[in-house]
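Please, structure for the following, as tokens.
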Amino acid sequence: MAKLFSQSGTDFITLSNDTSGTNRTLGNTLMNMGIKGILAKSDWNFIKDFGTLTTGTSVQNYPISHDTDKIEYVTVTVGSIKYTPKEIRDEKNWFYLNNVTVTSDIPYYWYISPRTKEVSLFPIPSTRVNLIEIGWTKKVSDLGASDYSTGTG
């Protein structure tokens, strides 16, 4: 059976024979590093997610989920055809591409702004009925808060 994070911390204190706050902090840090190390070793499905949005007429930017660590893919479905635009990672290239306003329902590129944390499409969608699907890897938060039991928190 899985242990609660606080139980693992208590085990660390017992095994290290040091009850100081500094040692408890070290134990929590090492456990979080271990968890992140394990998660980085494979392409785990439980830290993947996706969401859907509808295009807006002449709307280029779309919000992403608050728990997004990395965008994995963007697709746009127009009618029954699913398009997979290419990612542009360089801000300079994105701005160069957008020097001219172009609208179309068929997307060629997507970009994630480091400032706004929004996904942008190019060309700018021309109608408001197409489906955008954004897939992402979730952020892995450090554990350390008190464990929660239903009804006692």
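Strands lie at 48-54, 61-63, 68-78, 81-83, 86-87, 109-112, 118-122, 131-138. The first strand starts at residue 48 and ends at 54.
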